[in-house]
Amino acid sequence: MTQQAKTLLVTGGGRGIGAAVCRLAASSGYRVAVNYVADSAAANEVVRAIEAAGGEAFAVRADIASENHILAMFEAVDKRFGRLDALVNNAGVVDRKARVDQMDLARLERMMRINVIGTMLCAREAVKRMSTRHGGRGGAIVNISSIAAVLGSAGEYVDYAAAKAAVDTFTIGLAREVAEEGIRVNAVRPGITDTEIHASGGQPDRAARLSTLIPMKRPGTAEEIARAALWLLSNDASYTTGALLNVSGGR
Ligand code: NAP
Fold first, then answer.
1. If you measure from the C-alpha of residue 135 to the centroid of ligand 1, how many angstroms do you get, rounded to a whole number?
2. Helix crossing, 158-177 with 118-130: angle to 10°?
3. Is 246 a pocket residue for ligand 1 (Cβ < 6 Å)?
4. Is 30 among the residues known to form the active site?
5. Which of 83, 121, 124, 184 is most deeply packed, by most CB within 10 A?
6. Residue 59 pairs with which residues in a beta bridge?
7. What stretches of 101-152 adopt beta strand conformation (E)?
8. What is the per-residue pLDDT for 3?
9. How far is the CA of 64 from the centre of ligand 1 (A)?
């Protein structure tokens, strides 16, 4: 791998969709920074697999809920790679199934802080490095939204759905703001995807249970979401910006 290979930072890259993005990006030639917050073993395993296949990667711990952590993470990427070409804003959380009249402030603040503000701060740091306005060479950002932004997730997690709708609008606005500065900004809206996120929200059987609601009658795989993200990062999507791509089995 040459020093000129493009670099990619994936937030929440140790597990689920993020891990699939890291692996696929490395096999496409990117040098990859794998962010995680708690599961260092999973992130290190992604790095090991990439290195075993001849690629380059490193794991970087940062809580996307913390601006200081985000700043330190981008500095670590600067130090290690010396350039940033792509960002996948993937880190995200759900919470327990609840009605809005049951949601307390702490829940809402965590939901917005990680899923919305964290995404915005990471995008800000990426733009500072990529924008031709700041002496950068351009780049691409993909935000991992959710089809929940369209569906609303009534009775389950309306807060999460609203956070992802904010990510969608942020994607459209930022795309237009930096379109002349060499940066494309797009979002992928996954439908129900087979990862551990459902167990983290107390519903380990959610993907299988809700499959009947999906026109294709099955959940997506992390790899299927990753392929869409990699396409949006790639030069094949050179005229695509501000797009919100549903990858949701028809739902
Ligand atoms: P997952 O399997 O639960 O993995 C989540 C990843 O995000 C983990 O790597 C985790 O790090 C990281 N993360 C969580 N909070 C973080 C924080 N505060 N700071 C840094 N990293 C953090 O989730 P997933 O299903 O792959 O979801 C990835 C993205 O897709 C999320 O934005 C999610 O909303 C979206 N999405 C998922 C689905 C689905 O059905 N799976 C559907 C639509 C959208 P650790 O490994 O260190 O814990």
1. 32
2. 20
3. no
4. no
5. 184
6. 34
7. 139-144
8. 53
9. 11
Q: Residue 184 pairs with which residues in a beta bridge?
A: 140
pLDDT class of 4 with cuts at 50, 70, 90: confident
Which amino acid is present at 66?
A: S
Distance CA 86, CA 209 (A): 35
> Residue 13 and residue 173: Cα distance in Å, rounded?
25
- Domains in the chain: ranges and CATH: 7-247 (3.40.50.720)
Q: What is the sign, positive or negative, of the torsion defined by CA atoms of 148, 61, 18, 209?
A: negative
Atom of ligand 1 nearest to the CA of 36: 47
Amino acid 163: pLDDT? 99
Best mutation site among 195, 246, 251 for ligand 1 pocket (most ligand atoms within 8 Å of CB): 195
Q: What is residue 2's predicted lDDT score, i.e. its pLDDT?
A: 47
**Atom nearest to 63 CA in ligand 1:** 19
